Amino acid sequence: MELLKSHRTIRRYQLRSIPDDLLNDILECGIRSSNTGNMQLYSIIVTTSNEKKAELSPLHFNQPMVMEAPLLLTICFDVNRFKNWCLENSANVDFSGLLWLLNGTIDSSILAQNICVAAESYGLGICYLGTTLYNTPEISRVLHLPKGVIPITTLTVGYPEIVPELTDRLPLGSIVHFEEYKNYSAEGIKKMYSFKENLESSKKFVEENRKENLAQVYTDVRYKSADSQFFSRKLVKMLVDQGFVFE
Amino acid sequence: MELLKSHRTIRRYQLRSIPDDLLNDILECGIRSSNTGNMQLYSIIVTTSNEKKAELSPLHFNQPMVMEAPLLLTICFDVNRFKNWCLENSANVDFSGLLWLLNGTIDSSILAQNICVAAESYGLGICYLGTTLYNTPEISRVLHLPKGVIPITTLTVGYPEIVPELTDRLPLGSIVHFEEYKNYSAEGIKKMYSFKENLESSKKFVEENRKENLAQVYTDVRYKSADSQFFSRKLVKMLVDQGFVFE
User: Fold this and answer.
1) Per-chain mean pLDDT for chain B
2) Could you tell me if residue B100 is inside a domain?
């Protein structure tokens, strides 16, 4: 399927807005995806206003596509709607455990990806904002999310202004294991990462950040342990405040 | 996009196996999907042997499609490969926090959904096995997963023997919120769930399980609080044993 194989993350968009019927069609494709028990424990918050974009922008660390894209979709794990239905029916629901947080994250992600594929099939481009999980309490306030609704990921959507080159991937054979996981030898690791390490862009990263190698750019610059711990604690606190249990 | 809108979960498969080049093509579509920092923190375990299927089957509560489907794909969040690469490069990586568990779950799910769309575009059918998260330690043992590799979801894949009717969904308007989340009134909830409640299949569920209404079938039969707590605790324990931190 050529569409899937030619996927690029789009970070620069045309001014052109997305017609309502096209948006509806894309969202409809989203909710047709598989989900746990057909409970549809998710919600989609559509942002098109400049006011809301301006409030969300710093929470996504001012990545320019937040203001530039005509459309932002914040995909949320939502137990609020289902709980309300249960309350109306004298039914007692418990989604407080890690199992449900992960189920909800899976279902929200599957929904998001169907939206992406649908959008791309109509010539639109998308970008996932992983920053969503860094600032869930603040995003929740901006979008007026009630208790039980957790932002999982955000998509920027619009007509591509610039279509970048296809990014690299590890060889398929290094991701796929047959029947049992075959652990990697040092030699194997070296081989499978060599293409990535030798890209001009990688070499530039290493140089600009004055690191010894690409792995250190990831661990010391892009995804630092201190940041990971800070944002993980923030996320746990937010979820515990919401009634989730991690024990 | 008609393909996405006509998605059905396939639980009955033909005996016909899937050619290797088709499998490769589908997996290639999977790894072209977006992922955090292009670190590809996932692995795919391919199961086609009857021996492995027989070991996995009880861990998926003996759902018949595990033995019947020619192909099982267990999609895992994998920090092992990346960590090995970092070790080779004197780089110190820390993915132990909840942020990374959720990032990895999102990336694995996006990958899984791309695989599903690719498979369906070739006339194959799929079923997500949510049971994967119920038995992660046991599945890890069967598939020889090392520390740092967590099974997130499993797909059964094959040529459909029986294609069921399209399942119901809540009206799109009840999932989508514009600019801000609009909480639901009791009246609104009643209205949006009435189609589902009045399906013949729903009425049959209620009757067979001797419950007052459909919500109670979900909460008292299908997704009981005691089960949720039991499997959540099991999941937390497994992840803590693997070095994850939930505080």
Assistant:
1) 97
2) yes
Q: Note whether residue B144 is domain-resident.
A: yes
Q: How many CB pairs under 8 A join A and B?
A: 347
**Confidence check: pLDDT of B204 > 90:** yes
Q: Could you say which of A91, A130, A172 has the minimum Cβ distance to residue B36?
A: A130
For residues B136 and B151, is the Cβ–Cβ distance under 8 A?
yes
To the nearest whole Å, the CA of A81 is away from the closest chain B CA by 7
- Count: domains in chain B: 1
- CB contact, 8 Å: B199 with chain A? no
Residues from chain B contacting residue A4 (CB–CB below 8 Å): 29, 32-33, 114, 117-118
Of A105, A118, A216, Cβ closest to residue B105: A105
A178-181 LR contacts (CB < 8 Å, sep 24+): A178/B45, A178/B46, A178/B48, A179/B45, A179/B46, A179/B47, A179/B48, A179/B49, A179/B52, A180/B45, A180/B52, A180/B143, A180/B144, A181/B43, A181/B45, A181/B143, A181/B144, A181/B145, A181/B146, A181/B149
pTM exceeding the 0.80 threshold for the entire prediction: yes
A177 vs B134: CB contact, 8 Å cut-off? no
Q: In terms of residue numbers, what domain contains B116?
A: 2-165
- pLDDT by residue (tens digit) across B39-63? 999 999 999 999 999 999 999 999 9
Q: Predicted confidence band at B1 (pLDDT cuts at 50, 70, 90)?
A: confident
Name the one residue in this structure whose structure tokens are 């069921």.
B164
pLDDT tens for each residue of A81-105:
999 999 999 999 999 999 999 999 9
- Contact: B45, A231; criterion CB under 8 Å: no
Best mutation target among A232, A234, A236, A240 (most B Cβ atoms within 10 Å) is A232
Is residue B212 in a domain? no
Encode burial over A16-42: b for 16+ CB neighbours within 10 A, e otherwise: eebeeeebebbbbbbbbbbbbeebbbb
Percent of chain A with pLDDT over 70: 100
Q: What is the CATH number of the domain that holds B125?
A: 3.40.109.10
Q: Is residue A153 part of a domain?
A: yes
Section B124-141 average pLDDT: 98
Q: What is the per-residue pLDDT across B20-36, written as a single tens digit (0 to 9) for each? A: 999 999 999 999 999 99
Tell me which residues of chain A, numbers 93 to 122, contact chain B at a CB-CB cutoff of 8 Å: 93-103, 105-106, 108-110, 112-114, 116-118, 121-122
* Nearest CB partner across the interface for B1, out of A29, A92, A106: A29
Task: Give the one of B99, B117, B219 whose C-beta lies nearest to A86's C-beta.
Answer: B219
The β-bridge partners of A155 are A73, A128
Do the beta carbons of residue A46 and residue A75 sit within 8 Å? no
Burial class (CB in 10 A: 0-12, 13-18, 19+), B12: middle
